[in-house]
Please model this.
Amino acid sequence: MMTRSLSLYLDLLRLLAALAVYLFHVSYFAKVRIPVIGNLGSEAVIVFFVLSGFLVTAAGMRQPDLERFAQARLSRLWSVCLPALLLTLMIDLAGQYISLSSYHPMQPYSLFKWIASMAINALFLNQIWNLNIYPGTNGPFWSLSYEFWYYMIFAACFYYRGLKRVIAVILAALIAGPLILAAFPIWLLGTFIYFALRRGDGSGKRIGWILWLSSFVAAYAYWQFELNSVLREVFPELAASAQWGVNFWPASYLIGLMIAVNIYGFALMRETFLPMLEKFSGVIRVGAGLSFGLYLFHYPLMYFFKASLHASGVTGGHQFIIAMYALPFLVSMVLAFYAEKHKDMTTRALERAWALLRGRFRKVTIKNPDPFSDILPVSEKTNT
Model:
């Protein structure tokens, strides 16, 4: 099911989405926006959600017990999340010392606020219910809280059965709150893609081409007719109460559906584009591997370089624009490289912590040897 062509395509989408978020954010600092792609910040996050739903569902098949699933998810998040929190603390303090006016309206945190915001974000509680807690200037952390609770709901549904499943899912949903749950169907689109591909319905390359090309036509029509603005006029109360783009479900669900159709159609085409993707496989793999770090490191770095440039007397012009576009990107990629390089350290630390907890508490490993036993039809079970 996960062909090399599809794997490379998903990595390409992940890289392009991270670049779109970066270009969307840097335009606010440089005051110059790249046409089209520079406006796709919210849409890029929706791409992340659909990809996450697909890849986490696939990971669940490779990790048949809750313990290994939890370790893998926390290791993935904390390996970049914790360095990003530390970076934010250090360069926010340095940048505000260099040029406090560059951080307006952001004001320096008190010691208590730093400790509270760092802890809450490290535990992914920063967006539950009506909370909206930033770690300093690092706004992109909001989506990690969404992702984490989608992992929890998925794990509760995936590894439990019967009444335990119902209780676990309800408990996770109650902690997450309505704002996070409002965007959950977008994440579930990735899960639906996985199930659809795993089942197989006999669809061939022709259907794949039709779906894949149709998703681009739909995306162009959405942009050309400014449907986001139209939907905001039709649903003004929903638009006003939406904390993030993904919470405005009339638009975000439609965008998520286009992305899901695009991925599903490409998967049906199997290895059609493999020769083309193989030519750039090295760049795609490396870029996708660093995309998570780019996403979490870039925003505080943009503030820091803005402050540094202002303190040096560079407040505008081509020099300022080029520096703002280039410097945060380059530093983010370097930091992302080292964060990914030391990911195994986070994994080992989690394994040691887990071992210590086992020594104090009775070990309970919740296994799910046939995760889809009550979801897939009998004919599909025999092929697993």
About this structure: Residues 369-384 have pLDDT under 50 and may be disordered. Residues 4-381 form one domain. The chain has one domain: 4-381. The first helix runs from residue 4 to 30.
